[in-house]
Amino acid sequence: MASAALPVPEAAAAAAPVQPKKKSNFKYACTCALSASMATIVLGYDVGVMSGASLYIKEDLRLTDVQVEIMMGILSVYALLGSFAGARTSDWIGRRYTVIIAAAIFFAGSLLMGFAVNYVMFMFGRFVCGMGVGFAIMVAPVYTAEVAPASTRGLLTSFTEVFINVGILLGYVSNFAFARLPHHINWRIMLGVGAVPSALLALMVLGMPESPRWLVMKGRLADARVVLEKTSDTPEEAVERLDQIKAAAGIPHDLDGDVVAVPKRKGGNEKQVWKELIFSPTPVMRRILLAALGVHFFQQATGSDSVVLYSPRVFKSAGITGDNHLLGVTCAMGVTKTLFILLATFQIDRVGRRPLLLTSTAGMLVCLIGLGTGLTVVGQHPDEKITWAIGLCIASTLAYVSFFSMGLGPITSVYVSEVFPLRVRALGFALGVACNRVTSAAISMTFLSLSKAITIGGSFFLYAGLAALGWLFFYAFVPETRGQPLEDIGKLFGMKDAAVEDDDDTATKDKQVKAAAVEMN
């Protein structure tokens, strides 16, 4: 007797598994990443606008070269303080509201600098701006990495570097646009305009959701689930991400509800976080910290700030004269940086972090040697216009910013926002930013003095040597993280997951209990 059969369409539907639609929420995750990453535009604008504005500030306020060096580099020191304050603030009130605070602080600082009547007031404005920058560059990559799905995390997290470069370009354009105004007014308008993107940012951020990982840390599972469902590629991935975040936060898998109490666990309070990351790190945590700090250090030690901040002076040393020509070539450099950073954002998740990092650093090394050679030749023949040397300087500078923007520039924030475990991520990223800002300050506050001591060409040969060391460091200590869930990246450095650690702790306690029982018997 033949068994009853389903109609063909129904049978096919029953047999074929339903495939979840991929990337249906990419636009929402992308919008969140764009809104948060806009916070870093304030750093880029300050770097770009100060490269030209400093020429007129020095003239109007009658500053020495030492005062100019301090004025240019001190923002990085202030950003160091801001990054640590931002880390604590973001863990306290959330990533989203921290972005708003960053925008408000930079808004106030831009106005203070624009209305400064003397060097002291101007430096106070630099302090306020620096605090805002520190908040911004700490929280934006962390928020984006925590919101983005693993499949596009590299792309979305690199938006922070994209907006830094957009800010630099806007700063260059502002220099070029207002340079023809009287010198006692033009630099004030250049700096005051920086308040505009800050105001827009504060309004945009109000529509962002909170980071799902911060929500889980606060026990708000229902809110976190809503955000994950909107930002994950599939519903299944949203469930998996929530389970992974709960495990990383120490919440038992079977504990569920709209709001739950987050159990206190080893490393859960602030003192334990500092102990786990700084004062008594495990070998695995030490390797993670070394990789993060190394990437940040070499990003700045290879001379990127010297090229960007002092580009008009570099081009002037290369034989280009006239403010319009100097600022025009500087704008061309800004366009090049922006174009290549946009290209890199679409390659990070395809090619990977490590190949781009190694290729970028190798290219920068060659370009720094070329720039040092060109500047040295021009410096040895001050009364002659050596066309090939000038061309070599311009080509090397444009190629340098291109290589930087396709690798070491965007990958630094992407990589460091990924490698730290959830419980130490905000502090870990703040330490990376601190290393970055201290190195940036050291480079930017010594460039003019260094150029006088060993010549401007010699300075870039020195940066080339540091780039070579950086390449060796990346090759030896920086593993690939492409496509890995945030909660699994620690395994690349040898870290066990939360469940294994808990099992190990339980087994250890059982052994201790048995040993005590044997002794008593």
TrEMBL record:
Topology class, membrane: Multi-pass membrane protein
InterPro entries cross-referenced by the UniProt entry: MFS_dom, MFS_sugar_transport-like, MFS_trans_sf, STP/PLT_plant, Sugar/inositol_transpt, Sugar_transporter_CS
The Major facilitator superfamily (MFS) profile domain, residue ranges: 32-482
Gene Ontology, cellular component aspect: membrane
Keyword Aminoacyl-tRNA synthetase: no
Transmembrane segments: 28-50, 70-87, 99-117, 123-143, 155-173, 185-208, 326-344, 356-379, 386-406, 426-448, 460-478
Superkingdom in the source lineage: Eukaryota
Main location: membrane
Signal sequence, start to end: none
Any GO MF annotation of the entry: symporter activity
Subcellular location(s) of the protein: Membrane
Entry keywords, A to Z: Membrane, Sugar transport, Symport, Transmembrane, Transmembrane helix, Transport
Gene3D superfamilies with a match to the protein in the record: MFS general substrate transporter like domains (1.20.1250.20)
Family: Belongs to the major facilitator superfamily. Sugar transporter (TC 2.A.1.1) family.
Protein name: Major facilitator superfamily (MFS) profile domain-containing protein
Organism: Triticum aestivum
